Amino acid sequence: MITVLVRVTHGPEALAATLSALVPAVAAGLVGDAVILAERPDDTLATVADAVGATLVVASKGSWREGAAAARRDWLLCLDDGDIPQEGWIRVLDRFVVLSRPDQGLARMRRQRTGLANALRGLFGRSSVRAGDLVHRRVLANEVRARMPVRLAATVERDPVFG
Fold first, then answer.
1. Disulfide-capable partner of 113 in 14, 21, 104, 118 (CB 3.0 to 4.6 Å)?
2. Predicted local distance difference test score (pLDDT) of residue 116
């Protein structure tokens, strides 16, 4: 099982879109819990978190590290609100978690890129954690250094409403 960390920058509607996309993974037994990362206290986000059984963490700039401290699982899927994992992602992530050692540390889902700058970041992005990554808690705690990310045969896309 994994914990999903969802960084909120677009508000409760984008958060709801991402959380609803995770329901099949909860039913399949892949997602065990969720941590919602907000930059400041927000009553609406607290209500959403409570409704879905997630933990709300107020974290500076939506820090993955602060979210990892509240996670219950070792493997963490990092997403931004409005991210929607695409068909087949549950099987791919489940297989990776089962077969990988913690020292691998980092795996990356594919993301549709627009623009030259985004394409270059996708090609040459190193081991810094970003939305769409599956990361071991020990990497975020700086206990181990992440290797080059393993490219997963799964895709995450942005809901076009939240750009």
1. 118
2. 52
